[in-house]
Amino acid sequence: MSVNAYYVGLDVGGTTMKAAVVDEGGKVCGTATMSTEAFKGQEHGLNQMVATIRKSVEVSKLSMSDIASIGVATPGTMDIPAGIILDPPNLKPWRNVPVKKHIQEVFQIPTAFQNDANAAAYGEFWIGAGKDVQSMVMFTLGTGIGGGIIIHDHVMEGQHSHGGEIGHMKIQMTPDGRLCGCGRRGCLEAYASATSVVKRAKEALATQTGDSILKNLLDATTEELPAKVVFQAADQGDETAKKVIDDTAYFLGVGAMNIMHLIDPDMIVFAGGMTAAGDPFLNRIRHYIHELAFPVPAAKTIVQYALLGSDAGFIGAAACGRQLVKK
Amino acid sequence: MSVNAYYVGLDVGGTTMKAAVVDEGGKVCGTATMSTEAFKGQEHGLNQMVATIRKSVEVSKLSMSDIASIGVATPGTMDIPAGIILDPPNLKPWRNVPVKKHIQEVFQIPTAFQNDANAAAYGEFWIGAGKDVQSMVMFTLGTGIGGGIIIHDHVMEGQHSHGGEIGHMKIQMTPDGRLCGCGRRGCLEAYASATSVVKRAKEALATQTGDSILKNLLDATTEELPAKVVFQAADQGDETAKKVIDDTAYFLGVGAMNIMHLIDPDMIVFAGGMTAAGDPFLNRIRHYIHELAFPVPAAKTIVQYALLGSDAGFIGAAACGRQLVKK
Question: Which of A20, B6, B242, B255 could form a disulfide with B188 if both were Cys (CB 3.0 to 4.6 A apart)?
């Protein structure tokens, strides 16, 4: 490995894909973004991946021969060791796409493949919130809840590529558990995702009459998933919104407690859009973790927000590639 | 390491402690059991540990110079890396007992220290149910529910010695969650331990009038915790008992599903007294796992009973010591 090693990370999403070249310290040298256009088929998708990787190297004023490794992160479902996206709900009609093999054959550079949520967690572990700890579990709070578990520089992808599916831990096992997007009931995601925040807020409003800050803000918004409007209403003192947000912190506290009693990491990190709610929300989550968990992990586990934002995906993808070649 | 390496494992319980010498293949060469007598104080306890270890070596017709390492497993709470039992509920009035340091100083042999449930899981991983897999999570079903998580020959003891506390994963987060022995509500242990089986059976009987197989068997038993009587009543066709047992399988299915979505191991192993219920009970757990988990892990994760019985503790303790010196 040269002193000035460079690694490409590519984060493939449902709408766009973004590649970056990062250096040995994780600094981003240049990025490139292109449309995923999954509907055009997977051959087109693979071509877009190649083009995005090339473009990121170009804008970094490097050549492919400067690149020590490539890492590609995609949504699931997938077979991580085989490097294949199997049947991805967000990339239809792709099916059994041999991502790792294709990228490696085109560039003849060691290529890693990882689940996007795992990669983002590994990015935070490498140079973000978790850079000084030995083990870290990340909850990514968005439309759904993604997760990644990192133990001693090892991404816990699991034996069947299902490790870290934190959003689909069941926290309410009775039949009244909320219906999750995955079709199951009682999953953490069904309670604490941005989707659930909005859903629970609307349910609460449906039982009320008259105006309220929450109702007015929700009626006025044009956002498709206006979770931040619920946080805003809570900030402005709306009692219903405050209850919805506080419940969300409790649900995340339950999820964190379960992680602490099973994996007991150094650090729990929350990432994703909902972290825009800032310290008051984080402090409510911490409050519930203290109330719920065993005293020692409750006192000692570091609980904080992620630092890398949406860059975590491609930085983590690059870090997964770097794992293949370092030392 | 000599070709004929021998390892001592000591499993300290609330009533007795048992040591064994095992060879490189995990075969037990000899064992010794002594009373723990925690009430006599921790100095006495440490002396008993030393004596039990010596005795196991004697009965194996070996001398201490044949022993490559020692492993000691104890109940918690504990600081595993420091080798200290902190404040063990089952070993009162012990407090801050420097087990590892003491044993190592007395014998001058590399000494490992581990939580008893973790050690038992590691024993099963080494030469029991999990000997051919890469990763394994064990649920020990007894008065409470213990657990141990082994990933690639690594015992996931956690950063604060709380890894694998499977019994205290919350599976019912609403305030109606059952009260657990730990003081929390909704823990798996509160639903699926032998204690809970008996409790739920008695609750169900309290709402019924007249005789039943379950009532008669429970009235007749002199056992302190007659979980097996509930299984027996179910076998004899008692509908209430059948429901209690089937619910137990469901609760364990929920616990297993959560493990599969977080850690996604090769294998899930159930151990402890309740496994005497045999294949019908295991098959009900498997049924619920199939119903609950994502299709790929549901189809691929091996779910079975432990093989080593109560030997898993000292065999696993020996294996933890062996980890210190092998290769």
Answer: B255
